[in-house]
Give the backbone structure.
Amino acid sequence: AGAVHLDSTTLPKLRASHNMLVCFDKYIPYGGKHDTFKALAKQIGDLGEAGGDFLVAWVGLQEYGDELNKDLHEEYGIDSQKLPVYKFFKKDTQEVIDYKGAKTAKKKILSFIEEHAGIYITVRPGCVPKFDELAKQYVAEGADRPAIKAKAEEMVAAYKSSDDKEPQAAAQYIKIMDKIEAKGENYPKEETGRIEKLLGGSLSDAKKDDFRGRINVLASFS
């Protein structure tokens, strides 16, 4: 899994159907900043379906010969002395959002993507990324909730029996789907409020961690 290399033909086509983080850089980049880019591209690629329609891409500028992609670098006002430059392209719009943080701070870049793409990349305690995506689908307008819940149940059933915590965490999503069906759309918000009150009490560290994990899972349904 890696990044898609774009040019003046492919960038306009893909931005119409995908949210994208685009890295404007040299044609043959190297060094610590490029290592950061490669690492985050791989991490996002490894998300698979949980990454939705999001793409990581780069536009390499050839500063000699045919000067490939010089037109795109000029169109988006890229300063060749400040490469790499990250921009977030929102699909179906003309909105382009600049990333202004450190270029070797992978966590900050990933947080920037999460904020604008609406996907979970970094795993929050208690959560399972592929089930976070199902949760988001479940609360979307016009969702086929029985089908989404059935898929979640199939995915939980596919786990091999083990002591691993992931199957237990995944099962929480199905329980919340059942509760939303029984108690209504406000259940995640109401349950979050209830748990937050309990966190204010005298609890063991393990119990607090458990409650915080449950709040994170509930947040996936917001």
The chain has a mean pLDDT of 89. The first strand starts at residue 4 and ends at 5. The two ends are 29 Å apart (CA to CA).
